[in-house]
Amino acid sequence: MRRPSAFTFIFILLLVAGALVAWHYRARGQGGISAPEGGAMLALRPLQRGLNGVGGWVSDVARVVVRRGDLAGENRALSRKVAFLESERARLLRYRSDNEELRRLLKMPEMAGGGSVAADIVAFSGGDTSRRITLNAGTKRGVRPKDMVYNERGLVGQVESADAFSSIAVLLTDAQLSGVGAMTARTQASGVVVGDGARACEMKYLPFNADVRPGDLVMTSGQSDIFPRGLVIGRVVGVERDKTYSRLSAQVEPVVDFDRITAVRIRIGAGKKASAE
């Protein structure tokens, strides 16, 4: 038996296709669909639903990803804005504190025996035993070595060196400061206050039987022209009595917070007089 030729197969296929096309147009002309078309639609409907579901899921995922990217960008922008506002707030608070300190210094009365000038602290420096500040006032404004440095709370230190427009002051807590003549306000017990190189001071050379107690206010005794009498130094926080050597000393906490000050006053004139002597 001979197999049908390719031409015969193509001819039959064209006849079937033509019949299907005619069937389709006839059904459309009557407002319906042909049976082959309906069968194909029924067969492909589950696949269509699956593809529609996958397409919807992909679309939702894409929207979520895009939205997350937008939110991440917005969060970064908000974080930068919050950081900037916090920085501005800290800067404004610092300026307000500096201005308040300057106003208090400007309202302070002049000390007897010399004038004074206000100065800003432009730098801090320190080591194991050294604590110094750089001020923006120098010899052009009358500042000289040994001039006293103070603020509205009490004694800060003493000018060590000065040039035309700036000066360096040794803080009260500096171990290299030679010492400040001092006395207790309650009993007038006198001694010398020296720094420990860190944050505290010690009152030495007190009379062995002196009445000195924690809480006593310590102030300058006025034994020199550099430090006038009555300027507050700090408060006694501890007392040590050495009976073996008949020595009495007291630990003193300064009233000035050296880590927070931004401006001071410099008493001019007295240091020059002391240097001449």
Keywords:
38% helix, 6-stranded antiparallel β-barrel, alpha+beta, 12 strands, 277 residues, Thrombin, subunit H
Question: If you had to describe this structure to a student in words, what would you say it looks like?
Answer:
The chain is of the alpha+beta class. It folds into two domains: 37-107; 116-276, Rod shape-determining protein MreC, domain 1 (Thrombin, subunit H). The chain is built from three helices and twelve strands. It has helices spanning 6-29, 35-107, 270-276, and strands at residues 116-126, 131-135, 148-150, 155-162, 167-171, 180-184, 190-195, 201-206, 217-220, 232-242, 247-254, 263-267. A six-stranded antiparallel beta barrel has the order 1-2-5-4-3-12. It has a six-stranded antiparallel barrel with strand order 6-7-8-11-10-9. Strand 1 (116-126) and strand 2 form a beta hairpin. The mean pLDDT is 78.
Task: Measure the end-to-end span.
Answer: 144 Å
Question: Helix and strand succession?
Answer: HHEEEEEEEEEEEEH
| CATH level 4 superfamily of the largest domain | Rod shape-determining protein MreC, domain 1
**CATH architecture designation of the largest domain:** Beta Barrel
Categorize the overall geometry. rod-shaped
Tally of DSSP helical segments: 3
Strand order of the largest sheet: 1-2-5-4-3-12
Query: Helix/strand/pairing class, anyone?
Result: alpha+beta
Instruction: Indicate the proportion of strand residues.
Output: 25-35%
CATH class value of the largest domain:
Mainly Beta
Uncertain runs are none
